[in-house]
Amino acid sequence: MKLKVEALSNKEKDFIDFDLEENISSLNYYGVDYNLISPIHISGRISRAGRNYFVKSTVDLTVESSCSRCLVDVSCPIKYNIDAYLMREEYDEGDYEDYDVFRVDGSEIDFMKIVNSTLSFNMPQRILCSEDCQGICSGCGVDLNFEECKCDAPVDTDDIDPRFAKLKELLK
């Protein structure tokens, strides 16, 4: 997903509206591979800001992952905005603390690098199939959303590792 911005750098245009899409199969986020079930779509406007550029855009994609509680496959739509300066010259970070800032060289901007950098702040920490997902029983392993617990006796939550027994006494 690259965009040529020669018209901005040559001052032929003040802004460029764009609508880009890239079809990739998976995305690695902190060591976890997520299958993409929709193309990565980014649209917005890039404008001149002195010798630099300002981007205001929207990123839209859908990933497939496992529910954090019951491990069933679930699709998770992700949509977020990017307001960022693309700097062609040196800058003081304190002047741009309310915006994302990316260094660019040349007359072509690779939006996949920007999406990869901003995705970490916009991915959900836990993907759930539903807010009321009950998860998997830690005793018998059944999916509590569809079946009742098959444990002979209820799982004792006070059953702790004997090495930590002294720590439990401190809580009493």
Automatic annotation (TrEMBL):
Q: What is this protein called?
A: DUF177 domain-containing protein
The organism named in the record is: Peptostreptococcus porci
